[in-house]
Design brief:
Layout (H helix, E strand, L loop, with lengths): L18 H4 L1 E2 L8 E7 L3 H5 L9 H9 L9 E4 L8 H17 L3 E6 L4 H12 L5 E6 L17 H8 L3 E8 L6 H9 L3 E4 L4 H13 L3 E7 L21 H12 L4 E7 L10 H16 L3
Parallel strand pairs: 1-3, 2-3, 2-4, 4-9, 5-6, 5-8, 6-7, 8-9
Helix pairs in contact: 3-10, 4-5, 5-6, 8-9
């Protein structure tokens, strides 16, 4: 783990410890003990989608942003490392097996991307662990990512492929902006009864809509395409969004989803350190993850 994690050093006493000092390898994972990071360090799907590359280094940039955060008491945190396969289809399969293993051990997987094709990998892993559960897919994103996949999988095809082949899922998007989606994409989403929650809608309306949505499924998977956030807060992404979602609003919505106790996996995609400024995008993701883990102990 020392090759992936580093940070400020204050000492080795319990009161001084930071995350980088307590992260353990996934091979040492105990059952029902905590969280496990899984790196999806490929942006091949972004390249195929004609996006700007660089997100392959997003996984490690998030780790670096979190390394100096304080240890959380009574919580084990593990890391499965990064991928050995970088081509989209093989990467998704490898990553999905790691997700499934973490879930089957009673722990919580946190995916670190990488392109948003991580979403198909997360879904596959969840489905391997829960073959019969009705899954609610909640996508924090500006874009529907429901494009055709007939030629090949890309960072924008995951949800179309999932919905085409699995009748036991529901899809919702939070932070949607019409400027990022063609009429065909919108019509396709409506065909699948997608719950579309616009970035401009009131926070209380979004939260209440998502609570009803979560009530209608057995388990929930939450994915963040980090370009959902306004470019002033998240410049380091594959496709920055002007007038995007305010991170404070986004986090409050996220925390309300977590309160349902149905969330079984979370991932973060499209962090692109090539275009980041003062590491603010990676730090934003780091704070969202840390607060999720911290609040789980309250």
């Amino acid at each position: 783990m020392k090759t992936l994690w580093s940070g400020r050093y204050d000492g080795d006493e319990e009161i001084d410890l930071r995350l980088w000092q307590v992260i353990r390898e996934a091979k040492d994972m105990k059952e029902n003990s905590g969280y496990c990071f899984i790196g999806y360090d490929t942006d091949e799907g972004v390249r195929r989608n004609n996006g700007r590359v660089g997100a392959k280094d997003g996984s490690d940039s998030i780790r670096k942003a979190m390394g100096s955060f304080p240890k959380i008491d009574n919580l084990e945190i593990y890391d499965f490392g990064n991928l050995s396969n970088k081509i989209t289809e093989a990467a998704q399969e490898e990553y999905s097996n790691k997700v499934a293993e973490v879930i089957k051990k009673g722990n919580f997987p946190i995916g670190l991307g990488g392109g948003h094709d991580i979403a198909y990998g997360s879904y596959l892993g969840i489905r391997k662990a829960y073959p019969d559960k009705k899954i609610g897919l909640i996508n924090f994103d500006t874009h529907l990512d429901i494009r055709p996949y007939s030629k090949e999988r890309t960072s924008g095809t995951s949800f179309k492929e999932i919905l085409d082949h699995d009748n036991n899922v529901l899809y919702s998007i939070v932070g949607y902006k019409s400027i990022g989606n063609t009429k065909r994409l919108i019509e396709t989403a409506k065909e699948f009864n997608t719950l579309i929650l616009d970035e401009n809608q009131r926070e209380d309306f979004i939260i209440e809509s998502l609570k009803k949505y979560c009530d209608s499924v057995d388990i929930v998977y939450v994915t963040f395409c980090v370009d959902v956030f306004d470019a002033n807060y998240a410049p380091g992404v594959s496709a920055p969004t002007v007038l995007g979602l305010d991170p404070r609003k986004g986090e409050r919505i996220f925390q309300e989803i977590l309160k349902t106790k149905k969330v079984v996996c979370v991932d973060f995609a499209e962090v692109n350190p090539v275009y980041d400024i003062d590491k603010k995008t990676a730090k934003l993701v780091g704070v969202l993850i840390y607060n999720m883990m911290l609040n789980s102990k309250k």
